[in-house]
Amino acid sequence: MLWEHISEPIWATCNKIKHLANDAVSPDMSAKLHDKVLWYLHHQDEVLNYRHMFLADYDPTNVNQWSWPTQHAKVTMLDNVRLFHETQYTQHSRHQQTINDWFDSYTSWRRTLLLTPVTRWRQCVCDLASGLE
Questions:
Q1: Domain chopping of the chain, boundaries
Q2: Which of 46, 87, 94, 119 sits a CA distance of 20 to 30 A from 77?
Q3: Is the pLDDT of residue 3 over 80?
Q4: Cα torsion at 22, 23, 25, 29 (round to 10°)?
Q5: With the C-alpha atoms ordered 21, 25, 30, 31, is the resulting torsion angle positive or negative?
Q6: What is the secondary structure of 14-70 as a DSSP string?
Q7: Do 46 and 86 touch, CB atoms closer than 8 A?
Q8: Residue 21 and residue 54: Cα distance in Å, rounded?
Q9: Residues near 100 by beta carbon (within 8 Å), at least 6 away in sequence
Q10: Is the pTM for the entire model greater than 0.90?
Q11: What whole-number percentage of the chain has pLDDT above 90?
Q12: What is the DSSP letter of 94?
């Protein structure tokens, strides 16, 4: 009863609005995405880390040819990268380490530990080989 009288008319109206061929939402969303993609292109030096600037390296004339899902994916990716840069900048300005700083230092430390036993093993093999001759 609740579905038939209240929920179904609302659901049907939402589906009609969403799936109309001449809806007003799609062009508006497409224009907003297009503007945001171009904004990232022009402001990449201010809002992106230098490691991520290649993500905003595209030709502005080609943006008009991108599909809506492509523009949406690009804006989502650039938003995530901008948020990462803001978080990292804020933490470094407070003299805090980020998890990426720790991970980079840990992997370089771990790499030296992994190389040392291999080097020792190779030396032992070379010593044994020379002793057999």
A1: 26-96, 100-133
A2: 94
A3: no
A4: -20
A5: positive
A6: HHHHHH-TT-SHHHHHHHHHHHHHHHHHHSHHHHS-GGGGGGG---TTTGGGS-HHH
A7: no
A8: 36
A9: 88
A10: no
A11: 7
A12: T
Is residue 53 within 8 Å of 92, Cβ to Cβ? no
- The angle at the Cα of 82, spanning 81 to 83, to the nearest 5 degrees, equals 90
Predicted local distance difference test score (pLDDT) of residue 24: 63
Q: Are 51 and 89 in contact (CB under 8 A)?
A: no
Identify the pLDDT of residue 50: 80
Q: Residue 101 carries which side chain, given as an amino acid letter?
A: D
Query: How do residues 113-123 score in pLDDT, each as one tens digit?
Result: 555 555 555 55
The residue with tokens 């080609």 is 62
Cβ–Cβ < 8 Å for 8, 34: no
For residue 94, report the phi and psi dihedrals to the nearest 5 degrees. Answer: -90, 10
Rg (CA), the chain: 27
pLDDT category at 62 given cuts 50, 70, 90 is confident
